[in-house]
Amino acid sequence: MLRTLPVLNKCGTVKSLLLLPRVVTLKRHNLLCTTVKEQAQNERRIPIKEPTTSDSDSSSSSSDSSDSDGPSGYSRNGRTTYNEEEVAKFRSMADSWWDPYGDCKPLHSLNKLRVALVREGLVNSEVSQAEHISGPRPLTGIKILDVGCGGGILCEPLARLGAKVTGLDAAEENTRVATLHASQDPRVKENVTYLHGTVEEHIQDVGCAYDAVVASEVLEHVDNTDLFIYTCAEAIRPGGSLFLTTINKTTSAWLGAIAIAEHTLRLLPPGTHDWNKFIPRQELLFHLEKSGFVTRTVHGMGYNPLINEWFWLSNTSINYAVHAIKEGN
Known about the structure:
- This protein is α/β, with parallel strands linked by helices.
- Helix content is about 30%, strand content about 20%.
- The relative contact order is 0.19.
- The model is unreliable at about 1-75 (pLDDT under 50).
């Protein structure tokens, strides 16, 4: 059995130090082999409860019905996904996003999985145009929103695959760095646009405009996860996709990301991660269903720091990825 010791880097990315390294190889067209029905053996099942609102939210909802949208019943009522303390952590990283040997080294290598997740997900859900699937730019013409894009580490490879990418980040310093870096590659510059703001602000301007939304390593740093998911849903056209990677709310994740990484090994200052912000897999799937999505794939992710390589796992107890499709025609 593969034994791992979860640790964390300064970008807030959980990684597993393999005591018995083993790289998992998956077939190209069978990339994601875990379905939503499979339960990781060591993952604690958490009863799913509907999101609740405070008394003030309830009273606001009755007085301003225009803030309550759609069949999900989620109401903004002045709520926001923005958390200044969390944004400040990543604002301070603006100068290090594109250092391949710095704190974001694991995020660069994570592209091996998340670019494949998006590419294969859009091809297999028949969003990609048939004439481009076999070529070097299979995502040609597809409009993608990357929420919490940071310095554009994920935006750029998606743009090179032909997608029209909008990178959105709550820290203006990050979008400036991303714009500057994109200008160095004509293939990227013509296909990517960076904007400063939150997803709930952006949706007011663009409406249901995207074929796909990506939020990678973001959920554990926002407020009001239910609102975040629902607002992402508003940005996606019916039949479009939502791609997420995040950290599970399990004992393993608490031990790895907080107890060991922050308080024992001091890899990060205590308080970098808030376990209360981690989201249980079942709860996330509930929010997706509530917001009009059908979950297509859930899969765990593992990291070998010895070779700086990520790989797919059936175990979702720490890092996991989700691909969901918005219902409708």
